[in-house]
């Protein structure tokens, strides 16, 4: 469990630093917005490109990916259905569905995969699925829904071709699929830039906590609690049922998929919400609560299946 605690400790410290920066006003009134734009337009695309360009795409054919995909669509679908009935709006419902199913596979999933599961590559199917499928689809929905700044129809139709996160992901997949070797003078600067992504996202998240109310008590109470329940309990249960009951996974393989599905909502979802100016409170509170619940949930899973 040391790996779980270490991963959360690192995240908590960086978020706390962001909170102090916000309280002190070191970055001015627009500090959070600048960090968000830096992460969305520059650092995250670079990180995704360098990560996926080096990835082994054969993992997309694994049972782990199928379990991840089905359980993800199941819990996201539940949130979308409830959001449609409650009329939460397309943009808000999209952010909530992401918070219900999009796990922190990068800055938290990798250390947990290393220290708890013993193999960093075990998180690769989740990372690939989220970046190749979930992120482009969700951001396209947000673009077409008119979230954020209003744009002409032709810009909405071509949105997937201009989204920096989608471009970075697809470019990385293309490099990996074709077996091309990116020269060091190109890859090294991109790697350096990509290393800014996680700190920028966490710092922006910490700054956003300044002056915020207790999570789960504001007007977004219902979608926040639903997304947290689906993320912290629903998705791990769905993954366990599919892995054990449908795909017949046992032992370490079963533990792998359930642990990765129990990871909290990713901090970069707040970046997306901020970028499109929709569901920011929902994203912030869902991420915070699911991260707090992830420690006991992961401990229970490790005790039962480990």
From TrEMBL:
Say yes or no: keyword Cell membrane present.
yes
Instruction: Report the protein name in the record.
Output: AEC family transporter
The processes (GO biological process) annotated in the record are:
transmembrane transport
GO cellular component terms listed in the entry, alphabetical order: membrane
Q: Which residues cross the membrane?
A: 6-22, 34-53, 65-85, 97-117, 123-144, 165-186, 192-212, 286-305
Q: Does the keyword Zinc-finger apply?
A: no
- Tell me the membrane topology, using the record's own terms: Multi-pass membrane protein
Q: Which UniProt keywords apply?
A: Cell membrane, Membrane, Transmembrane, Transmembrane helix, Transport
Subcellular localization is given as: Membrane
């Amino acid at each position: 469990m040391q790996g779980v605690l270490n991963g959360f400790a690192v995240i908590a410290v960086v978020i706390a630093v962001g909170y102090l920066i916000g309280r002190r006003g070191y970055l001015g009134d627009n500090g959070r917005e600048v960090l968000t734009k830096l992460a969305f337009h520059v650092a995250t695309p670079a990180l995704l490109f360098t990560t996926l360009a080096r990835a082994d795409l054969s993992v997309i054919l694994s049972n782990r990916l199928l379990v991840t995909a089905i359980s993800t669509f199941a819990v996201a679908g539940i949130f979308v259905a409830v959001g449609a009935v409650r009329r939460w709006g397309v943009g808000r419902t999209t952010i909530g569905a992401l918070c219900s199913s999009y796990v922190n596979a990068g800055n938290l999933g990798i250390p947990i995969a290393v220290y708890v599961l013993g193999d960093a590559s075990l998180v690769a199917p989740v990372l690939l699925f989220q970046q190749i499928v979930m992120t482009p689809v969700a951001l396209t929905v947000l673009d077409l829904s008119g979230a954020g700044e209003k744009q002409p129809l032709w810009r909405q139709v071509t949105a997937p071709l201009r989204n920096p996160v989608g471009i970075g992901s697809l470019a990385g997949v293309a490099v990996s699929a074709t077996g091309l070797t990116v020269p060091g003078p190109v890859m090294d600067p991109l790697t350096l830039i990509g290393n800014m992504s996680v700190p920028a996202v966490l710092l922006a998240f910490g700054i956003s906590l300044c002056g915020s109310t207790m999570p789960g008590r504001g007007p977004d109470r219902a979608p926040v609690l639903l997304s947290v329940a689906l993320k912290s309990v629903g998705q791990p249960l769905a993954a366990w049922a599919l892995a054990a009951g449908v795909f017949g996974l046992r032992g370490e393989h079963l533990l792998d998929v359930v642990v990765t599905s129990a990871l909290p909502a990713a901090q970069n979802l707040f970046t997306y919400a901020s970028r499109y100016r929709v569901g920011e409170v929902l994203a912030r509170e869902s991420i915070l609560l699911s991260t707090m619940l992830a420690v006991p949930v992961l401990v229970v899973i490790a005790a039962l299946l480990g």
